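Our collaborator T.R. sent over the components below with a one-line note: 'Predict the complex.' Nothing else. No constraints on interfaces, no templates requested, no preferences about which chain binds where. So this is a plain run: every listed entity goes in together, and whatever single assembly comes back becomes the starting point for the next discussion.
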Amino acid sequence: MTAPDSPSPLAPKKFPVLPPIAGVRFAAGAAAVRYAGRNDVMLALFDQPARVAGVFTRSKCPSAPVDWCRAQLPRGEARALVANSGNANAFTGAAGLSAAAAVAEATAKAAGAAAHQVYLASTGVIGEPIEAGRIVGVLDALVAAAKPDGLMGAARAIMTTDTFPKVVTARAKIGDREATINGIAKGAGMIAPDMATMLAFVFTDAPIAAPALQALLAKSAARSFNAITVDSDTSTSDTLLLFSTGAPEIADAADPRLAAFRRALDKALLDLAQQVVRDGEGARKFIEVRVGGAATRRAAKRIAFAIANSPLVKTAVAGEDANWGRVVMAVGKAGEKAERDKLDIFFGDIRVAHAGQRDPDYDEAAASAYMRRGKIVIAVDVGVGTATAKVWTCDLTKDYVAINGDYRS
Amino acid sequence: MTAPDSPSPLAPKKFPVLPPIAGVRFAAGAAAVRYAGRNDVMLALFDQPARVAGVFTRSKCPSAPVDWCRAQLPRGEARALVANSGNANAFTGAAGLSAAAAVAEATAKAAGAAAHQVYLASTGVIGEPIEAGRIVGVLDALVAAAKPDGLMGAARAIMTTDTFPKVVTARAKIGDREATINGIAKGAGMIAPDMATMLAFVFTDAPIAAPALQALLAKSAARSFNAITVDSDTSTSDTLLLFSTGAPEIADAADPRLAAFRRALDKALLDLAQQVVRDGEGARKFIEVRVGGAATRRAAKRIAFAIANSPLVKTAVAGEDANWGRVVMAVGKAGEKAERDKLDIFFGDIRVAHAGQRDPDYDEAAASAYMRRGKIVIAVDVGVGTATAKVWTCDLTKDYVAINGDYRS
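Returned assembly:
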């Protein structure tokens, strides 16, 4: 692994303070799963069973922790979450499942809970057997050390090639009470829907029952973690979990009392997802792709991802080249309906192509100046219908190749 | 455009001599379409109308020459082919179609043919208006200069970021006569099915009627030009044309007299397609991906392409890292049926993973030594059925980013 020397130039300038949420405490520790001299395990500990919702990778080769979480999720209650970096415990066969179960059982024992109340996530190298004992060995200490303001430390413990910890906090009124949302994420490469996280854990004290929590999470993920890509590669381990320590009072995701909470949750998840893109391996530019005029929302999203995943579009942005011909190429390759002779393309506010050809008024100098910015908006109208989509990605630089050409050594 | 300084390390050590084919002559000239001081237009001139077959990009935004060829193809006869490099005449609206028609009409006049007997192809920058006059201005000279042994010069004239001309020749018996096949291709980036050429022109004197020629070409393309990828990006301009100067005696592609010819054509097209991959932008390694044990041939090909297009797999090969965990990831993301716990993965003859986990006997030193080779074979058995597929790609290096980060400047 080529360790990043400094934070991404797209990193947030400062981190928010994460206010404590009643009923959940956090700890981080060093288990030397793979990395020495740093924290690589985190624990979230719930004083009472919390409601839990989850969205996972669509990979046909999911990791053992993903299998574990999927199996527990129908019960919808959590007492602990244990996540480690350095080893994904993926493609590790029966031994991997045993390791996951061993960590869950040891956590349950340390926390006075049942194993099915323990959620797991792992990120790192695929295919290497994981030594469960290393994680089990630190659990008692983590339980003892867990504290309400430990979430930032937990965010740091799950970093791999990340150059900064990803955290978010939000508040929303539910009736006359105020709910808090705190979230953390990690991810920098092998980022593509669906899911695109790699890992994201979100905590709230909102009084919502598990099925409603699941419905809210699935909907919100579609426009955040499932609308980002770094490199089109989908992890075996992508895991997004939402925990609520509040009483399960509201049972319907569409309850009007949740209007402000839904907006806050959407905004928080989008913020976290965009932080993952901003920390894309080697990224120097943050790219928003907007597609309009599509036949369906699904078509719009597929066209947007064809643009966002195109190595030629991404290298052009890296080269600060307003090469909209490659955007045309990407629209064409998406396989969705598009009217070539009605296509409009914008870089920011600059319309570079109109009605299927170069905009006669297009000022290349202005476009070149725009391309030097840190955030680039590419907007396309495909001239067919009215459906729209937005996705986010980053540029493709030599540093991406350098980081990934020597990951395991 | 960043001009390549030297041929790809994967280039053939020497070029074959292309024997003349009766009835077709070639010329190349300098029209300064975009590049100065080099040939950028080629002509193939048929003494009598030749039979023609074609396979084109599936892009929804095809170039004007692709539109032109598709419109003429149902007539199935050709007197001339004109191809230029430097400008793709794609996304150029009505002006682009007029430019294509102008070149076809001028060619027809110079050659004493009808415009519908003229085939066109263009490769280069997308979205820039093309000046038809530049090409028209050299047509008389090209017609006058056309000679039977001019095909290698034509191959050089259509190069863009290519570091070497791609040529192939083959012979096959049809009855008691011997047929010759000569082919040329260009392509180095924006290479993905379907098609994946960008441009390939194949000439033969085999006595085959146009519909049979089309059937042979479509079948052969599926396992050659539509089984390669450099960067997953599909050109607007991909064009594969097969011309026959022989009398149209054989009307059925399945005619037993064509058995040897079919094999020779398949081999020649595969050779040309693999040369395109060997010249992939920035390529240092040639990669063959073999998938077996899939539910259907289509599933096998999709899984193979998921591996071949994965930036993480390609950067691992660039880094000479036998990172088979990323192969697992790519199998998982393909979305096709795969039995995670039956998966076998080989690098060359080295089985690195067996039955869903690391092969206990796998020797990392041997795998590392294997990865230093110029050709890498990645083989996967997905444990579901019996269908297989093979595709070819190259590694992803910093040079790919360098070449494409500054193409237009």
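Summary for T.R.: Residues 7 and 13 of chain A are 10 Å apart (CA to CA).
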